[in-house]
Write a structure and sequence with these properties.
Blueprint lengths: L9 E5 L6 H13 L5 E3 L18 H13 L3 E5 L2 H9 L4 E4 L1 H4 L2 H11 L5 E5 L6 H13 L5 E5 L16 H10 L5 E3 L1 H5 L5 H10 L4 E5 L17 H10 L10 H42 L6 H12 L2 H4 L3 H23 L7
Helix pairs in contact: 1-2, 3-5, 5-6, 11-14
Bound molecules: phosphoenolpyruvate and manganese (II) ion.
């Protein structure tokens, strides 16, 4: 059995898809030669968004991956989406399988996979679902756990969102962090390739995951990325992979150094103090909002006045540069405060007037 905790950080790398025997073996050999990779990956069955794209080579790819394992001595991994895939992967003794983002969204599919996994000691990684729904992600984990699988890990590959943004998928780091606190015993592996969608973003995303104390990475690497049959723009050459892995600074979870502990405790004391003051002020602000609600109620005026809200946003956002915080952050905080203010006003406006 492959032990997912055998190394930290755990590095999984390989082409998005196995395309030909030659491309699979050459990619895997060169990736193994970097000496920095623990598990080889390649997609055999590819759930593509649109029909007509390359959907994977199927079973014969498993034979190529087995050969890659024989030649490099490294464990191999692939994605499964149905019980048939699981049976085939287990028959080839695949060491690591993962449930892809398009499969994690569907509890029937995950259950089908879990049923096929019963009695196996394979390592199973569960990617986050396409949608930012961690209950769904947690549900998939529970199904695999209930099947008796002992070696389980999580892969954070970002969430799809409507419209264009810098990255191919929105990382929403806070969701992965929440998932870690729900399943502290499970390693969290970052997939910078599918988050970024472009090789230029790999380092910044991978570094961020290292800063957040992730347990490893899964990175797409291909001997000739620009000619790849799937996900060409996010794949790197094996040399590019080596350079990437050498550039990442992995952090220690903590250290016993007394100087570090002392400095940290001092700063944490400041944070606790500021949080106390911050929330006291917010509570005060809510009490004022309630008073406004009472006046509006007594004068039969609507809660929301568009012009006023816009002027608050403009005023706060105009201070972003001076405060050295991002406009985006100020807007997010302000929106949360505004929502709570509206809820409070709503409550008092619909409370009965006092009888005088
Ligand atoms: C993959 O890892 O090749 C893949 C298809 O990923 P995801 O399920 O994250 O889209
Ligand atoms: Mn891919």
């Amino acid at each position: 059995m492959f032990d997912i905790r055998s190394k930290r950080p755990l590095i999984i790398a390989g082409p998005c898809s196995a395309e030909t025997e030659e491309q699979t073996l050459e990619s895997c050999r060169r990736i193994a030669k970097t000496g920095m990779v623990d598990v080889l990956r390649a997609g055999i069955w590819k759930p593509r968004t649109k029909p007509g794209s390359f959907e994977g080579v199927g079973l014969k790819g498993l034979a190529w991956m087995s050969e890659a394992r024989k030649q490099t001595g490294l464990p191999i991994g692939t994605e499964v989406a149905t019980s048939k895939h699981v049976e085939a992967a287990l028959a080839f003794g695949v060491d690591v399988i993962w449930v892809g983002a398009r499969t994690t969204v569907n509890p029937f599919s995950v259950q089908d996979i879990a049923d096929a996994l019963k009695g196996s000691d394979v390592t199973v990684l569960i990617k986050n679902p396409m949608s930012p729904d961690i209950d769904l992600w947690g549900g998939a984990v529970a199904r695999i756990m209930n099947a008796g699988i002992k070696s389980i890990g999580l892969i954070h590959r970002g969430f799809s969102a409507y419209g264009s943004s810098l990255y191919r998928n929105n990382p929403m780091w806070h969701l992965a962090i929440e998932m870690r606190s729900r399943f502290p015993e499970l390693p969290m592996i970052c997939d910078p390739s599918h988050i970024g969608g472009q090789r230029d973003y790999l380092l910044e995303i991978a570094q961020k995951s290292a800063d957040l104390d992730y347990d490893g990475l899964i990175v797409e690497s291909h001997i000739c990325p620009d000619k790849a049959w799937s996900d060409a723009s996010q794949q790197v050459t094996p040399d590019g992979l080596k350079e990437l892995l050498e550039s990442i600074v992995w952090r220690r979870p903590t250290t016993d150094s007394p100087a570090y502990q002392q400095a940290l405790n001092k700063l944490r004391g400041q944070i606790d103090q500021i949080d106390g003051e911050l929330f006291e002020l917010l509570a005060q602000r809510m009490r004022v909002a309630e008073q406004i609600g009472l006046i509006k109620r007594d004068n039969n005026v609507a809660i929301l006045q568009g012009g006023r809200w816009q002027s608050i946003v403009d005023r706060v956002v105009s201070q972003a540069a001076k405060l050295n915080v991002s406009e985006e952050f100020l807007k997010t905080v302000l929106e949360a405060i505004h929502l709570e203010s509206i809820n409070r006003q709503n409550r008092v406006m619909n409370s009965p007037k006092e009888v005088k």
